[in-house]
Write a structure and sequence with these properties.
- By secondary structure, the protein is an alpha/beta fold.
- It folds into two domains: 6-48 and 85-196, Rossmann fold; 52-83 and 206-389, Rossmann fold, CATH 3.40.50.
- 45% of the residues lie in helices and 17% in strands.
- The chain contains 15 helices and 14 strands.
- The strands form four sheets. The protein has a six-stranded mixed β-sheet with strand order 3-4-14-9-10-13, sandwiched between helices. The chain has a four-stranded parallel β-sheet with strand order 7-6-5-8, sandwiched between helices. Strands 1-2 form a two-stranded antiparallel sheet.
- The termini are far apart.
- The relative contact order is 0.15.
- It binds pyridoxal-5'-phosphate (PLP).
Length: 408
């Protein structure tokens, strides 16, 4: 098992003995599905009738005019059902759950977006659904908890440890060990033990396949550079994988939070602060101290606030195929403002990291060049987080009045 799923010196499957059979079943199901031409068709059919695939490629004419340099194009993953590329992964895994004949799904979630996407998929396919979430996150992310519960999922607040994402992951694994005959664990990104990185990248590859075809149709040439934000790395892998064999520069953008020197960030591949370790069943760069204790991470974008990173991307950093940069909270909020006002698009705070880095580099590009940005999700669904990031006083007044109305 251990020798499978390695990317250079990263990845693997470091599993408790009891889960080995379940992982073997998942690997077999995935391999069979992948080699069955009907499966990709079944997947693209459901994505085109239930989510909004193919998502459009938008020419950002006003941003292009503003920077007076490269032509800007935006891949619109924000138009997926539930508002982000996460739908690509959960719907794909849902089809595998049906193939395995299982009836229950579990997931862990930090900010709640993967939880909402999983609960949506479970409702659609008729699966029972349990979502593990740190108690602190349950308190911070009430709107997403509200939706998960309305969609029919059970949300279990995890009271162990620091009561955040990593504790929810441990709890989800505990559930899986107990219920593996009926239950599939829907991992949310290109991390975790094999086959999850490969499997999630496979479903997200739909982004890059579409984008490559779309840009060639429209411009009759490839982009110069592609930017994508990197939390676990799934939307980045999705768009990048369409262009690995092309002479296209690929740029992954992590969260620099309050600044790399502040220590308040989630820059694993773009800073010197992370080191290689094994945790949560796989080997990659983690933000950890010398004893292997995970550090606190910070980002204005909850979806990028993660201690580990995809083993596939860790390897692509080592081979030099992908360049990694980081954008600060401040740069991200500014980039989001500019994009809203110039294009009428509302990128998620996560996606705005990709925009921020592209804007920083725009002055060095010429008019012949093409920049492609992956807008992984939309910001309007996260109005509470976005309004906080903008520190809008009128919004704060509105919330205060609403709270007072409840008390009256
Ligand atoms: C969850 C999320 C991310 C981060 O996840 P990746 O696996 O790195 O793609 C990025 N953007 C949006 C909108 C998200 O919801």
């Amino acid at each position: 098992m251990i020798d499978r799923g390695y990317y250079g010196r990263f990845g693997g499957a470091y599993l408790p003995e009891i889960l080995v059979a379940t992982f073997d079943e998942l690997v077999d199901t995935f391999e069979n599905a992948k080699s069955d031409p009907a499966f990709w068709k079944e997947y693209t059919d459901i994505m085109s009738t239930y989510s909004c695939r193919p998502t459009p490629l938008s020419f950002a004419e006003n941003l292009t005019g503003h920077f007076q340099g490269a032509r800007f194009f935006i891949k619109r993953e924000d138009l997926n059902h539930t508002g982000a590329h996460k739908a690509n992964n959960v719907m794909g895994q849902g089809l595998l759950v049906k193939r395995m004949g299982k009836s229950r799904v579990i997931a862990e979630t930090g900010a709640g977006q993967h939880g909402v996407a999983t609960a949506t998929m479970a409702a659609k396919f008729g699966f029972e659904c349990t979502i593990y979430m740190g108690e602190v996150d349950v308190e911070r992310q009430r709107p997403n908890v509200f939706w998960m519960e309305r969609l029919g999922a059970e949300v279990i607040p995890v009271r162990e440890g620091a009561r955040i994402l990593k504790d929810a992951i441990n709890e989800a694994f505990r559930d899986w060990v107990t219920n593996m005959d009926t239950t599939h664990y829907v991992l949310g990104t290109v991390c975790g033990p094999h086959p999850f990185p490969e499997m999630v990248a496979y479903f997200q590859s739909i982004i890059g396949k579409e984008a490559r075809r779309q840009i060639l149709e429209r411009e009759a040439r490839l982009p110069t550079r592609i930017y994508a934000c990197v939390g676990g790395g799934s939307n980045a892998m999705g768009i990048f994988s369409g262009f690995f064999d092309d002479p296209v520069e690929l740029v992954g953008v992590e969260a620099a939070g309050q600044g790399l020197e502040s220590g308040q960030h989630a820059a694993r591949l773009s800073s010197e602060d992370a080191s290689i370790g094994v945790a949560q069943g796989y080997k990659t760069y983690f933000l950890q101290d010398n004893d292997g204790q995970m550090k606190e991470t910070h980002s204005v974008a909850a979806g990028l606030d993660y201690v580990g990173v995809s083993p596939i991307l860790a390897n692509l950093k080592e081979t030099g195929r992908v360049r990694f940069e980081a954008a600060t909270d401040r740069e991200v909020v500014d980039a989001m403002s500019l994009t809203m006002q110039k294009e009428g698009l509302i990128p998620a705070l996560e996606s705005a990291h990709a925009f921020a880095q592209a804007f920083k580099e725009a002055p060095t590009l010429s008019k012949e060049e093409i920049v492609l940005i992956n807008q992984s999700g939309r910001g309007d669904k996260d109005i509470f987080t976005v309004a906080d990031a903008f520190a809008d006083p009128k919004w704060q007044e509105f919330i205060k009045n609403k709270a007072e109305a409840y008390h009256a």
